[in-house]
Write a structure and sequence with these properties.
Arc Repressor Mutant, subunit A; 2 strands; single chain; globular; DNA-binding HxlR family transcriptional regulator; alpha+beta; two-stranded antiparallel sheet; about 10% strand
Length: about 120
Amino acid sequence: MLVLRDVARGVQRFDALQKGLGIAPNILTRRLAALVEDGLLERRRYSERPPRHEYVLTAMGRDYLPVLHALGAWGARHFGDDSVVRLVAADGHVVQPMVIDAVTGAPLADMTLTVKTAAP
C-alpha cells in the first residue's frame, strides 16, 4: 500500500521510492514487480542509457486510490494524529472519506449488510 501511496503522490522512480520508503532494493524490486504483474502499476522506461524505469498507476491502480484514502483516514482516526496527514480537495477543504452505496447514497457504516457469495 505504501508503494501505491507514494506513486500516487508522484514519487515514481525506483531511487526515490527506495529512499522514501527506507526499504532494501531487493524488497522494493519484488514489490514493484508484483504490483506490475497484478495490474496496479505500469513500468515505463524514461532513460535508455543507462536503462531506467518509472512506475505509474494503471486504471486499476487509480481505482484503488479511494480505498487507500479510506484506509488512511480510518488509521489516522483510530491510531494516529489525523492532523498530520490530510486529504485536501482542490478548494482547500479537508476531505473525510466515506464509503457509500452507489444506489441509495447511504453510508455503508449505517447499513445492516450480509455477505453472499456468487453461485458457481
